[in-house]
Amino acid sequence: MLNKIAFSIGPIDVHWYGIILGTAALVGLLLAIQEGKRFGIVPDFFMDLLLIGVPSAIVGARLYYVAFQWSDYKNNLVEIFMIWHGGIAIYGALIGAIIGGYFYFRAKGYPFWRIVDICAPGLIVGQMIGRWGNFINQEAHGGPVEESFLRDTLHLPNFIVNQMNIEGVFYQPTFLYESLWNLAGLLLLFWLRRRPFLRAGELFFSYFIWYSIGRFFIEGLRTDSLDFTGPTWLASLMNALWSPMTLVFEPGVMTYGGNIRISQLLAVLIIIAAIIIIIVRRKKGYASAHYADPIISSKAPAANVKVQNEELDTKGAEYDSNRTV
């Protein structure tokens, strides 16, 4: 088993989990900065966004988890603040980061949809890297499997197989499945953002659609899912949608005794909502701007706006000359 502590500074232990999450945030930031340069957005804008987005994501992740596990906290409210005891959720982190980002974008005068498009690859690469923190902590795994499945069927290297051995039982490396799915999603977003048909906001929605598809199927393998007891017809629908996975995998046990996994239901709702929003925005003309169009802050000094417009109009003309509809 890998040591969760990377190194110690006196009495302070520095955990690999924190290092991995920090690396994930840094790589996501660098991607956003690099793409922002194409639109004349200074790096400081994204660095400040990170300072707002990370705390907002942590608060959102914790509140989301506590809301769905309120019975564990209602008699011990102090425990809500003890986040180091575990209990965060990625969808809550996304909600928190989006809310924090929205107010930051408004303060800076940038259109929300244009900036979240730039940030979308950074979000998915952050999740791709961050899942390896779960690997180090031996958490967010799937149900029990045979060692031969990991070694002979999946052909995983020893360091992954050994880390999936928890107290003598081997488990599904769902962290790896999600990390690889996010890697494929990152490549898809890189390809999409250079397509002439892409409108403002659609790269962000594409990120949510891709991530939610993978999360729906991978979530069904996990044994730590937040769940609830819902109507039988809804549980049957979720099971039917997940049923193709049974050709290869066994579903994970629902820890809390419900019949519907919250993340699976939310994933389905997000996919449907994102597709509907893309269609409606196009039909109603709300998505008239293309991804490659100039991005100008409404609060930028007039002289800077004029210079930016001249530079970006030149780039836009070059882009339009090569664009096919």
UniProtKB/TrEMBL annotation:
Coiled-coil blocks: none
Q: What is its main location?
A: membrane
What span is annotated as the signal peptide, if there is one? none
Q: What is its EC number?
A: 2.5.1.145
Q: Entry's Pfam families?
A: LGT
GO annotation terms (biological process): lipoprotein biosynthetic process
Which residues span the membrane? 14-33, 45-68, 80-105, 174-192, 198-218, 261-280
Membrane topology label? Multi-pass membrane protein
Its top-level enzyme class, in one word, is transferase
Q: Where does a 1,2-diacyl-sn-glycero-3-phospho-(1'-sn-glycerol) bind?
A: R131
Compartments, as annotated in UniProt: Cell membrane
> Which keywords label this protein?
Cell membrane, Glycosyltransferase, Membrane, Transferase, Transmembrane, Transmembrane helix
Q: What family is it from?
A: Belongs to the Lgt family.
Q: Which HAMAP family match?
A: Lgt
The record's function comment reads: Catalyzes the transfer of the diacylglyceryl group from phosphatidylglycerol to the sulfhydryl group of the N-terminal cysteine of a prolipoprotein, the first step in the formation of mature lipoproteins.
Q: What is this protein called?
A: Phosphatidylglycerol--prolipoprotein diacylglyceryl transferase
